[in-house]
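Protocol step 4 of 6: structure prediction from sequence.
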Amino acid sequence: MLTELDKKILIALRDDGRASWSALAKRFSVSRVTIQNRVESMRVRKIIKGYTVVANVNSAKAGISEEKAFFMLQFVAGDSFFGLCKLLSTSPHVLGIWCVAGEWDCFVLVSASSLREVAKLREHIFDKIKIKKLETHPVLNDCPSDFVESK
């Protein structure tokens, strides 16, 4: 179970993964050791899986091209959302997996350097999971983060 402090720490680290324990301690009015212990506890419990760099691909200065797409899946009876999660859990291309209600069983958001890489990931899913139907919807445009933050 996450405490309110744990939730605040996760949000802060999501926004700035390089924030120091001291800066977080000052921000939340607790000791540096408390922050360090809470982060270590979440790491051990696998709430924090790792640390990564997220490049601002919307910036021309980044010099990185990125293609995103949503996969919408319907499973054949016998295969499940959890099998897909297990298959994709280590993929650096998967940004999120959601089990949903309605016509589709699952949505997966992926990111890759090209649409060819997106297609390879799609084929990997087809090879390993029994899929009744899978549609791919490339992302045409992202809402700028500064627009969302200004709301």
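Step 5 (inspection) to follow. Confidence is low (pLDDT under 50) at residues 59-63.
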